Amino acid sequence: MAERRNGAAEGLSRLSEWADAHLGLLRNLSTGMAVAGVLVLARSVRMTAKFTSASDIPVAFVEKNVKLRGKLHHITEKGLEVEHIPISVPFITSIQRKWQPKGLLLVRLAGVKLAPGGMAWLQQELKPKQMIWFQLLGREDSALECLVLVNKGQFLSVCLNEEILRQGLGRTARIEGLHHDSRLYWKLHKRLLRAELKALKKNKGIWREESYSERLRDSISNNKFVQTLKQFVNWLRGSI
User: Fold this and answer.
1) Closest alpha carbon to 178 in 66, 63, 55
2) 8 Å CB contact between 133 and 85
């Protein structure tokens, strides 16, 4: 029993001596852990921050093509006006809510030029206050160039950029914000081209071919003699 006590005392003594000898190392280790904790906290604050303008979003988010969540408010000719909904983290989120600013992000469908019926289709398909995801591809002035994703059911999501093209309600365009020679640019551009090709093969939207009767009707209505005859008939009716 006495031997065990002596062994424990000796072990404790050696541990104390080692701690005294490496006191600087232990202090540096504690400082390092504290710095790491601050960095983790700062990262959490940045990830949970609410962005109200394109300039608020860190450059690293755009370069890494971070995906953000938001609530749709308006559909305009300039793009989608979206309220950013940040990630919710206990304690941090509750503090941030007290001073979170208000504002909407302008989100554009990257790589897509809308046809005249494109905006009407978006207004019909998307509901007010609907939750969407938008993946950052680029930033131009006050607008964000994004891939916009909408949940359809529990396990299915639809990319609006591709769906617009599949419906024949837009054309593929340059993806602003991405380097033209980058691998990601051509990967996404091929996806959009395939979607556009499907609409072309199915004659949907702007790719729909007019029937013979429609072409004949347009030809007659645009004929100069027919137009002159209509003007004469209208003048004759007004004279009687």
Assistant:
1) 63
2) no
Asked if residues 136 and 144 have their Cβ atoms less than 8 Å apart, the reply is yes
Q: Report, as an integer, the average pLDDT of 141-169.
A: 92
What 3-state DSSP class applies to 59? helix
Query: Cα(45)–Cα(136) distance, rounded to whole angstroms?
Result: 19
State pLDDT tens for residues 38-62: 333 334 445 678 899 999 999 999 9
Q: Distance of alpha carbon 25 from its chain centroid, rounded?
A: 46
d(CA 131, CA 83): 9
What is the model's pLDDT at position 211?
A: 52
Separation of alpha carbons 191 and 156, rounded Å: 18
Nearest to 49 by CA among 86, 97, 12, 13: 86
Question: Using CA atoms, how far apart are residues 36 and 30, in angstroms rounded to an integer?
Answer: 10
pLDDT of residue 16: 58
Quote the CA–CA distance of 84 and 25 in Å, as a whole number: 44
Are 147 and 188 within 8 A, CB to CB? yes
Other C-beta atoms closer than 10 Å to the C-beta of 158 total: 15
Distance CA 60, CA 66 (A): 9
How much is the pTM? Answer: 0.68
